[in-house]
Amino acid sequence: MILIQKTPQKVNQNFINILKDILIPPLCAVCGKAGSELVCRQCISKINEIGDLVCDYCGRPLSRIDSGNKMCSFCKNEDFNFYRHRSFTVYEGEIKKIIRKYKYNKIYGLKEIIAGFLERTYFINYKHEEIDYMDTVPGEHMEILCRSLSGLIKIPFAGNILSIKKIIKQQGLDYTQRKNNIKEAFKVKNCVLSYGKNILLVDDVWTTGSTLMEISGILKRAGADKIYLLTIARGKDS
Ligand SMILES: [Zn+2]
Ligand SMILES: [Zn+2]
């Protein structure tokens, strides 16, 4: 009885979706042009990857390398809790629009395109590293994205970070304000899971790095070994 009721509805829905695609082709989420993909090829081609001339540690693009030393001036004086950080691109233009459409307009169909960017950066930078599992900043959009990425790079997604404090929007806050805003905002759910592990910690945008640094810190305190950071984009001047 249940099957008899459900099947025609499903067929009808599929038929409506096919009709919709024919009559209203998807529009590029960036430029609005009609086509067959969620982001058109032209818009994708405008996104430039950050090359390999970056700080070994934080992934900041360098203008030149001084006597073989690939560390930026910022990292020379810092000892972070993370082991490495790499971003796919700089947060501007097309990628900025894609991330905003995904995050704020909840166009989750973009997850495959974005996961593809992260997959590329992962394979270029981290494929020889022994990473045990992947995690992210708590939030629906990042968890959906990480599950998609997990299938591509075959690293399990754990979801072992818990948000324990209401965080006000980081936008418009300076480095110190951001740091205070997210201080003690997260908790490791199961410390046993993190103990002695190498963790790939994924987020969308690196602005000041305060959120990822805070989470790296709690993972380290939970006994994690190396924290590899991976973000889609990093702020232009970060
Ligand atoms: Zn386009
Ligand atoms: Zn650096």
CATH topology of the largest domain: Rossmann fold
Spell out the helices and strands N to C.
HHHEHHEHEHEHEHE
The residue fraction in helices comes out at: 25-40%
- Helices, by number, come to 9
Strand-residue fraction?
A: 5-15%
Chain-averaged pLDDT: 89
Measured distance between first and last alpha carbons: 60 Å
Please state the CA-atom Rg, rounded to the nearest Å. Answer: 20 Å
CATH architecture verdict of the largest domain: 3-Layer(aba) Sandwich
Low-confidence stretches: none
Q: How many structural domains in the coordinates?
A: 2
Strand count: 6
Protein model, in words:
The structure is a single chain. With 238 residues, this protein is of the alpha/beta class. The chain has 2 domains: 1-46, no CATH class; 49-234, Rossmann fold (3-Layer(aba) Sandwich). Helix content is 40%, strand content 14%. The chain has 9 helices and 6 strands, in the order H-H-H-E-H-H-E-H-E-H-E-H-E-H-E. The protein has helices at 2-23, 41-45, 73-76, 93-103, 111-125, 140-153, 175-182, 191-194, 210-221, and strands at 84-90, 133-136, 161-163, 186-188, 199-206, 227-234. A 4-stranded parallel beta sheet has the order 1-6-5-2. Strands 3-4 form a two-stranded antiparallel sheet. Strand 5, helix 9 and strand 6 (227-234) form a beta-alpha-beta unit. Helix 5 (111-125) packs across helix 6 (140-153). The model has no long low-confidence stretch (mean pLDDT 89). The structure holds zinc ion (2 copies). One zinc ion is lined by residues 28, 30-31, 33, 39-40, 42-43.
